[in-house]
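Q: Could you fold this chain for me?
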Amino acid sequence: MKIQVQTDNTVFISIAAWRDADVQTEIFRRSALKQNIPVVWLDYGKEWQGFYQHKIISVQQELCILRERGFRYVVFTDSRDVVFTGSAAEITARMPQLEQGGVLFAADKPGTTFPLRNPWFRKTVAARWGSAVLNSGTYAGSIDAVLTLFDECTRLREKMKVLTGNPASLTERALLEGKKHVYDDQFYFQILQMQGHPCIQIDTDKRLFAMFDWEFPNVKNRDALPPEDERSIGTALVLHSPWLAGQNPLWTQWAVDEGII
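A: Sure. Below is the predicted structure, expressed as C-alpha cells.
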C-alpha cells in the first residue's frame, strides 16, 4: 500500500547549536508554536562543531532512529533565520510528489553557487538546471531519500580526502578546488546537483519554500508581486533569509507586523 504524506508520519527537525539557543531561535520557535508545529531539536544549546557535523551527521543519526519509529518523511529547516507561515497539515499537503523519492530544496539566489563560487562550477550547474541552485537550509522529502543524499555526501567527502591533483572529472575538480569547504554541507549537495542526482528537486515555484534578501516580504498580501518577480515568495509556507534575519529588531518587527508570531 502506497504511503501517504501525513502529519503523523512526518517529522519536523531543526538544529540550534548555540550556547544562547533560546535567543537565536526565538522567532522560529514562536512561529512554529503559532502554527502548532512540533519541532524535534538536535544539539540544542550545544557548542557549534560545523555544518557537516550538525546538519549531516547529527541529522542522519536522528533520522535512522525516527525511521525505526515509523516516520517516513522529514521537513528540515534552519532555525535562526526561518519562519513558518503554515501549519504542519498545510505543509504536508503540499508534499505528495515526494513519494516518488525526491527531496525538495529551496531555491537560492538565482544563478549563485555558494560556497564554491568558481565560474565554471556555476556554469556547469546552470547548463543542467538553469538559474535554479539549491539551498540546504530548508528541504523536505522521504527519509530514505534524504539518507541516500547523506550517504552520497559522505562518499564525496571521503573522495576529497584522497584527491591530490589532475582531476579526471568535473566532480573531482569541484572537490579539489573546494577543499577549504570540507565542513560545509551545502558544498556537497550542490556537487550532487551538478551531477544531476535523481533525488534532488528545487522549489523554483516557491510552493513550499521561499528565500528572500531584497526586502522583507509582504506575507499578508503576497499576491501583490507577480510570481516571476524575484522578490515574490509565491505560496511558500516556510520562509528563509540568512541575509535579513541578522537585522534582529527588524526581523522581529516584520514577524509581528505580518502576523507570523
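A (continued): Residues 143-162 form the longest helix (20 residues).
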